[in-house]
Amino acid sequence: MIYPINPVLMELLVLAMICQSDSYGYQISQQMKKVSNLKDSTLYPVLRRLAENEYVDIYDQQFQGRNRKYYRITDAGRKQKAYLEQEWNSHIDAVKEILNNSRPAEGGKDE
Predict the structure, then answer these.
(1) Per-residue pLDDT at 109
(2) Do the domain assignments include residue 109?
(3) How much is the pTM?
(4) How many Cβ atoms from other residues are within 10 Å of residue 55's Cβ?
(5) Distance of alpha carbon 56 from alpha carbon 80, whole angstroms
(6) What is the pLDDT, as a whole number, of residue 20?
(7) Per its UniProt record, what InterPro entries does this chain match (predicted)?
(8) CATH number for the domain including 73?
(9) Residues 6+ apart with CB under 8 A from 59
(10) Could you list the mean pLDDT of each consecutive 10-residue stretch along the chain, which spans 111 residues?
(11) Long-range contacts of 101-105 (CB under 8 A, 24+ apart)
(12) Residue 66 maps to a domain
């Protein structure tokens, strides 16, 4: 992808994934790679910040003899996701408006 993901959009995407089902870090990072060149080292501070803001809870679960850290969305996380999603949709609408209404500027070389 050529479009970078800023921290707010990354937060929205992570919350959206966790909202669908409890997830662990590697699982989230693999989904994020569909839309970004995200490095795993970038994801974990986001997950930590989401936990500090009480948007997600963290719990351990056994998997093949070792503990795996899972993230579960909270009510506050659902509210934050809804807010960020509304902001994202407004942003997309504004970008689409610019793209759909773009034309050469007056006095430009295209005249």
Answers:
(1) 54
(2) no
(3) 0.83
(4) 23
(5) 11
(6) 96
(7) Metal_resp_DNA-bind_regulator (IPR052509), Tscrpt_reg_PadR_N (IPR005149), WH-like_DNA-bd_sf (IPR036388), WH_DNA-bd_sf (IPR036390)
(8) 1.10.10.10
(9) 69, 70, 72
(10) 84 97 94 86 92 97 90 98 97 93 63 48
(11) none
(12) yes
How many distinct structural domains can be found in the chain? 1
Give the C-alpha separation, 2 to 109, whole Å: 28
CA 87 to chain centre: 13
13 exposure class (CB count in 10 Å sphere: 0-12, 13-18, 19+): buried
> Which structural domain, as residue segments, surrounds residue 88?
7-99
Tokens of 43: 């994801």
Classify residue 74 by burial, with Cβ atoms within 10 Å: 0-12, 13-18, 19+.
middle
Distance CA 48, CA 57 (A): 10
pLDDT at 41: 84
User: Would 30 be classed as within a structural domain?
Assistant: yes
Q: What integer pLDDT is reported at residue 104 of this predicted model? A: 64
Per-residue confidence (pLDDT) for residue 106, from 0 to 100:
62
**Separation between Cα atoms, residue 78 and residue 20, nearest integer Å:** 11
Domain membership flag for residue 1:
no
